[in-house]
Amino acid sequence: MKLGIIGLGLIGGSMAIDLRRKGFAESIIGVEADSVNAAAALKIGLVDEITTLQECAASCDLIILSVPVGAAVRMLPEILDIFQEEIKNGNSCKKTVIDVCSTKEQLAKTVHYHPMRARYVATHPMAGTEYSGPWDAMPGLFDGRACIICNQEESSPASVHLVEKMYDCLNMRPIYMNAASHDVHTAYVSHISHITSFALALTVLDKERNEKHIFDLASGGFSSTVRLAKSNADMWVPIFSQNRDNLLKVIDTYIEKINAFREAIDGFDEDGIRSLIEDANRIKRIIR
Amino acid sequence: MKLGIIGLGLIGGSMAIDLRRKGFAESIIGVEADSVNAAAALKIGLVDEITTLQECAASCDLIILSVPVGAAVRMLPEILDIFQEEIKNGNSCKKTVIDVCSTKEQLAKTVHYHPMRARYVATHPMAGTEYSGPWDAMPGLFDGRACIICNQEESSPASVHLVEKMYDCLNMRPIYMNAASHDVHTAYVSHISHITSFALALTVLDKERNEKHIFDLASGGFSSTVRLAKSNADMWVPIFSQNRDNLLKVIDTYIEKINAFREAIDGFDEDGIRSLIEDANRIKRIIR
Predict the structure, then answer these.
(1) pLDDT at position A268, please?
(2) What is the pLDDT of residue A104?
(3) SS3 (DSSP) at B269
(4) What is the spatial distance between Cα A278 and Cα A267, in angstroms, rounded to a whole number?
(5) Which residues are CB-contacts of B35 (< 8 A; sequence separation ≥ 6)?
(6) What is the pLDDT of residue A27?
(7) Whole-angstrom distance, CA of residue A134 vs CA of residue A46
(8) By CA distance, what is B141's nearest residue in A?
(9) Could B196 and A196 be called an inter-chain contact, meaning their C-beta atoms sit closer than 8 Å?
(10) Which of A202, A213, A255 comes nearest B276 by C-beta?
């Protein structure tokens, strides 16, 4: 299997490591717009060569599009166009392309009527760290996590099967959902936690001007709550923008909850504070 | 050294483990109101015996008050009263008592004029987890972290010296601060992160009624951001209540930051979102 990876950051790079190690990919071709990242990915050995999107799409059996979702919306139709060229040239096309982006609906709409739509599988592996770039790629990143596959009825069974096999190699559990539901549920669970973490960092940096105090007073608790605030703007700006409507609803609920704490604390209402905390503690049942 | 620990939870229990292991305490006497926790602490071997607050304060050289701060405000004067009895009985008193609570000003005010004030040292070791109870006590919890010592000029040099030696045994860095500053800075850095995490748990539990979705869609990022929402109400209700004024200020700043995100997302203002995220990213310089 000749694998192409477009975007050699944390996700693309970590996939390269494990898919090569498990024998799924015999050779891996990379595409990377940032020349420093491209050179690093080659040097680390994530990929065997760096090429262009056109050449990658023309020569690989499976292409992983692991770029920020704003770029993915532009690149995905280009890749499907290249697939279509092969058909026009009288060849058959057995290639498959997947994306690994955190929002799915805009991508789904963009290629819904593309004649090669069936060769695309929309996926979202639920794994990552707050770091980015090929040097942060790591083995085992996906191990045991869930991977969402969206609108699989629009993809060809052969492409879906190949992608399921690939995620099985990464030891991921597949979950099937339509793109619109995906975006609702990821806003509710994943995207809002990035907003709360960015806002926490901004608050602490604003109120506590003495950076040494932040360092000294940061217990493990603060470090873990603010961890996501280190996340990359290139990745998160288009996610927040594309998932606007769902995010606004969950932000409004979040502001209500913060205000409930504010009121209870302001009114010396210890029973009210206790009942909010005990309600929140129910998360223990779900997240160990 | 005969050590007394009042409150055998995560902090008291973890101190017991390391102070015995390092040879600082030859015997450890525990006081614990909850009979299940008391039996567990004995069974695990955290303490050699369980006794009453009165007997503990009368027989130990150093007493660690590791109970929620609401209880500490009641117990600390009782312990100093017992110290004073010894003086009244014509003996000298070389005992020391410390607390390990997360708010310091109310405790400081409560015993400011007590004749035995000098035998009390106010401390706050900046370590913990979201768990509580003697079974969650662990070795090395304090290793390499900061420990705040407040208003040390009100404590006798001998007591301060003993307490510094104890924290040195736990490999903690001492930081000196007055009680009022402590409460401002911990509100800014530590307490607000608990509020944001409780509110996140409430939001997700409210919006996402399907618990399986929460489990499936929770990447490592969500788990780490919501971790503190598992924290114990008995500990946090009195902290939020005692640190009300500082907390209200930092909650208001936090709501401003969340609203800034809301506005930028609502107005499709990608430059605005980017600039908020990049501002928040400055936390990387401080928290690795």
Answers:
(1) 95
(2) 97
(3) coil
(4) 18
(5) none
(6) 97
(7) 8
(8) A220
(9) yes
(10) A202
How far apart are the C-alpha atoms of B122 and A217, rounded to whole Å?
16
- Cβ of A258 within 8 Å of Cβ of B261? The answer is no
Query: Exposed (0-12), middle (13-18) or buried (19+): which is A285, by Cβ within 10 Å?
Result: exposed
Q: Which long-range contacts (CB under 8 A, 24 or more apart) does B108-117 make?
A: B108/B150, B108/B151, B108/B154, B108/B179, B110/B73, B110/B76, B110/B77, B111/B76, B111/B77, B111/B80, B112/B154, B114/B77, B114/B80, B115/B80, B115/B84, B116/B80, B116/B81, B116/B83, B116/B84, B116/B87, B117/B80, B117/B154, B117/B155
Q: Which helix (H) or strand (E) holds A174?
A: strand A173-177
Q: At a CB cut-off of 8 Å and minimum separation 6, what does A86 contact?
A: A58, A92, A93, A95
Task: Read off the pTM.
Answer: 0.93
Chain A residue with the nearest C-alpha to that of B126: A219
3 state SS of B97: strand
For chain A, what is the mean pLDDT?
Answer: 95
User: Which chain B residue is nearest to residue A277, measuring alpha carbons?
Assistant: B233
User: Among all chains, which residue has been given the structure tokens 């995010």?
Assistant: A247
Give the pLDDT confidence score for residue A252 in this predicted structure: 98
* Residue B89 Cα distances to B56, B85, B224, angstroms: 18, 6, 54
pLDDT for the residue A122: 98
Closest CA to B124 of B77, B191, B57: B191
Q: How confident is the model at residue A219 (pLDDT cuts 50, 70, 90)?
A: confident
Residues counted in chain A: 288
Q: Do B233 and A278 touch (CB under 8 A)?
A: yes
| Pairwise CA distance, residues B154 & B162, whole Å | 15
Residue range A144-201, pLDDT digits in tens: 999 999 999 999 999 999 999 999 999 999 999 999 999 999 999 999 999 999 999 9
Q: What residues of chain A lie within 8 A of the CB of B278, using their CB?
A: 233
With tokens 């262009």, the residue in question is: A52
Distance CA B39, CA B41 (A): 6
Angle at CA of residue A287, ends A273 and B286, nearest 5°: 75
Using an 8 Å Cβ cutoff, are B150 and A241 in contact? no
Q: Which helix (H) or strand (E) holds B29?
A: strand B27-31
pLDDT digits (tens, 9 = 90+) for A37-57: 999 999 999 999 999 999 999
Averaged pLDDT for residues A106-113:
97
Share of chain B above pLDDT 90, in %: 88
The Cα of A191 is separated from the nearest Cα of chain B by a number of Å equal to 9
Asked if A262 and B281 come within 8 Å (Cβ–Cβ), the reply is no
Q: How many residues does chain B have?
A: 288
DSSP A29: E
Looking at this predicted complex, what is its ipTM?
0.93
Q: What is the pLDDT of residues B221-240, one digit of tens each?
A: 888 899 999 999 999 999 99
Distance to chain B for A279, nearest Cα, Å: 7
